[in-house]
Structure formats: C-alpha cells, structure tokens
TrEMBL record:
Lineage: Bacteria, Pseudomonadati, Pseudomonadota, Alphaproteobacteria, Sphingomonadales
Transmembrane spans: 20-45
Record protein name field: Pilus assembly protein
Pfam families with a match to the protein in the record: TadE
Keywords: Membrane, Transmembrane, Transmembrane helix
Location of the TadE-like domain: 16-58
C-alpha cells in the first residue's frame, strides 16, 4: 500500500514540468532561429550576386575598353560583389540580341542548424550597348 501511495504522489507532483517542457521545445526553437538566419543570409547573397551581375553588365555595355572587357569581367564582377562569401564565383560575358549579357554564379554554404548545404546561385543581366 505504501508503494502505491508513493507512486500516486509522484504522478501528481508538477514540480520540474517547466524544465521538461523547455527541454522538449528549446531544440526546435533554436533550429528554427538558425534556419531563419541562414535563409536571410542566403537571400542577401542572392541579391548581392544579382547586383554584381547588373553592375558588370552595365559596365560592359558602356564599351569601356580600359575597364570592362570580356577577359576581365570576372575580376570586375567579383570586385562588385559585396555579399557573404561564395565559393567558385564566376562571371561570363556574351554578346546577344539584347546587348551584353553577363551571367554570374557561385556556391553558397548554408548552415540551417544541423549540417551544411551547398546552394548554387545564378544571376543574369542584359544591358544594351551604349557608346560613351
């Protein structure tokens, strides 16, 4: 009888239930916070790559032989990129019907909380040729 009464008191005791609930919910909340921050940094990298591609396409369309040529457009685009670190960033130039098209790409390492994921980013911009 004494064991049964002790078990009954044990199951009715609510002390420490907050700690148990915290232990169950905290990892999920922390994971969501890391995923949100990682998603924000990924969006920033995407926008920065698009901007660098547009700046390089505009420079190429200005037909400035001293600054932007097909040979050094990768250097110019990489210098114009101001976002988080991208590995294997490349910029390529092509003369197409719309003018000069620049394609930029790179690989972003995303850490949403559990492990790293590689996300390939691509951006294109086309400006008509302008004589300065």
């Amino acid at each position: 009888m004494k064991g049964r009464a002790m078990m009954s008191r044990f199951w009715r005791d609510c002390r420490g239930s907050g700690a148990v609930e915290f232990a169950l919910v905290a990892p999920v909340v922390i994971l969501m916070i890391f995923a949100g921050i990682g998603g924000g940094v990924l969006a920033y990298a995407t926008v920065s790559l698009q901007r660098a591609t547009e700046v390089a396409a505009r420079c190429m369309s200005m037909d400035r032989a001293d600054l932007c040529t097909a040979a050094n457009i990768a250097t110019y685009g990489t210098a114009a990129y101001g976002g988080p670190s991208l590995s294997s960033m490349t910029f390529t130039a092509a003369k197409v019907a719309c003018g000069y098209r620049i394609s930029g790409s790179g690989t972003f390492s995303l850490f949403p909380g559990l492990s790293f994921f590689s996300v390939n980013l691509h951006a294109n911009a086309c400006y008509p040729g302008i004589r300065v």
